[in-house]
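Researcher: Next sequence.
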Amino acid sequence: MAVLPLAGAPPGQQAGGMGNFTQLLDNNARFAGTDAKDKVPAIPFLPNKQVYILTCIDPRVDPAATMGLALGDAIVARTVGGRANRSFLDDLAWISYLHETKTPDAEWFEIAVVHHTDCGSALMADPELRKGFTARGFDDEVLRETAVVEPADTVPADVQAILDAPAVSGRIKVSGYRYDVKTGRIEQLVAPRSR
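Model: Next structure:
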């Protein structure tokens, strides 16, 4: 029996509490029937393309679409603004530790920091908007520093933050990029370098 959408329900909302995720589960069932999952790397921290991408949570900048990545090609970390925050640096330290101890002779991946134009994190630069959020227990300075108003300013800062992180391997090369949401083009701002 077909389930018809509820009249006046939000897009994707269906009778019986079925939501937008239902279609994704259908997509997953189709995916599970393919051989794509068999082409992933045997060691999860050594991606097929040897890249680790840090980018924004914005759905307009999904690296699978913007860079043509397939499953297993890259490690992708997504933070607000694509910033190299403490949580990201901790994750990267763990991955580099695994690489050093489990696969010390294997090729090292390159990290690409990708910030984008028209980033919603730029709203954190507005003191009045931040004020309401800090009232919920968040640190004003951290929020202000998270804002990506101009990627040419924030990308080099995050590349340097990664290079300066003592728990992250100095063998990792880090580069930085600006993604333009209007043109779809990626421009290199910082050439690859290691500590």
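Model: The first helix runs from residue 21 to 32. Helices lie at 21-32, 63-66, 86-102, 127-134, 140-146, 151-164.
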